[in-house]
Amino acid sequence: MDTGDTAWVLASAALVLFMTPGLALFYGGMVRAKSVLNMMMMSFGALALISVLWVLYGYSMAFGDDIGGGLLGNPLEFFGLSALLGTSGLEGGFQPESLVFTVPSMAFVAFQAMFAILTVALISGAVADRARFGPWMVFAGVWATLVYFPVAHWVFAFDGAESETGGWIANDLLAIDFAGGTAVHINAGAAGLALALVLGKRRGFGRDPMRPHNLPLVMIGAGILWFGWFGFNAGSALAANGQAAEVFVTTLVATGAAALGWLLIEKLRDGHATSLGAASGVVAGLVAITPACSSVTPIGAILIGLVAGVVCALAVGLKYRLGYDDSLDVVGVHLVGGLWGTLAVGLFASASTTAGVDGLLYGGGLDQLWRQALGAVAVLVYSFVLTLVIGVVIAKTMRFRVAEEDEVTGIDSVVHAETGYDLDSLGGGGGSATLGNQAHAEARGMTVPTERSRA
């Protein structure tokens, strides 16, 4: 065990955990005021649920010894994680019995748990304003079990790291996905598209203005995501070494370039560079550089980020042309950005980096490009098809979508008996806010003062 590597992985795990509340703020600011709490609750619900499932069997499914063709880890091998506990009690300190490279297995468990949590939370942006919380939680658990845990095995489980044999994309296909362009972003983006199709369009989609209700929240959330993403990418080196430093720089510069690219498109197309565009460009750049951060030079990272900002800024408009209601652009940013970043490895990879592979533009031919394309398509198709099936089953059995009148009233007050902003306390009336908070208070055995008692 190396204490420096262990400290870095644990710190990175905390950074990635912080990304989920950051995502909640980012998504929460983008929806209308009557949906902000429901939007944030879907992220926090994923954080709570997936943490438990990961310890019970998720880690074992992802990183247990392969039980068939590189498709799935043994779900019982590390069930409950008891097999990873213990220490040899060496003189002068404690040496863990189980290691992943130079860090304790439990540190690796914690780090990878945060990836699972965030991936599930990302999907929620595609169904904002119209998903009931209970069915969402059921979906989150089933989707993580049937989709994320197996795909994480495909992409992240390398032979000999935790178990003898790992997943097919990592070990047989040899596609490069350093921190989750396929397993996280293409996976979540394809799932978001499928779930948006299952739930259908929001009432008034394409007709009524559905502007973000709180842009400062959006920018704070994007800033937290950028901050946490250094743990997401550089932490994936699993060591405090030169690779982590290189990845840190490529992540920084690609993100900046993407924000500039998005703002440029906005200025040319609309005449204004917006705060929402800046925040969205940041996320697009982070998504695109995630699979490529260990395999491209800083100049290559700038190019990847710049293209991501431009392409994703254009892609978010596809939902109006094609007629699917991806509320917060999970498809336009995560699916499109993840596809671009994954394919970009096959174009911009340089053998001068720690990945040691040349892409097409560095004389490596098409070899790496086809590997990247096959991995991306496999994850996209698997995630989309299974999500469609899961979504339809839940919609038929549990009524996934809120009733139309409840959607109009506001999902926060109907589903959670709360509102994000109690305007009545400011003397502005706020009847619906008072109603929602009254119900919440009564549920807790409290009394909310009426207008008469205030007087």
From TrEMBL:
Pfam families registered for this protein in UniProt: Ammonium_transp
Superkingdom assignment: Bacteria
Family annotation (InterPro entries): Ammonium/urea_transptr, Ammonium_transpt, Ammonium_transpt_CS, NH4_transpt_AmtB-like_dom
SUPFAM superfamilies: Ammonium transporter (SSF111352)
Purpose: Involved in the uptake of ammonium/ammonia (NH(4)(+)/NH(3)).
Record text on subunit structure and interactions: Homotrimer.
Compartments reported by the entry: Cell membrane
Disordered: annotated segments: 436-455
Domain Ammonium transporter AmtB-like: 7-421
Keyword Ribosomal protein attached: no
Family, similarity comment: Belongs to the ammonia transporter channel (TC 1.A.11.2) family.
UniProt topology in membrane: Multi-pass membrane protein
GO terms for MF: ammonium channel activity
Coiled coil regions in record: none
Protein name: Ammonium transporter
Membrane-spanning ranges: 6-27, 39-57, 99-124, 136-158, 178-200, 212-232, 244-265, 272-292, 298-318, 330-349, 369-395
Keywords recorded for this protein, A-Z: Ammonia transport, Cell membrane, Membrane, Transmembrane, Transmembrane helix, Transport
UniProt GO cellular component terms: plasma membrane
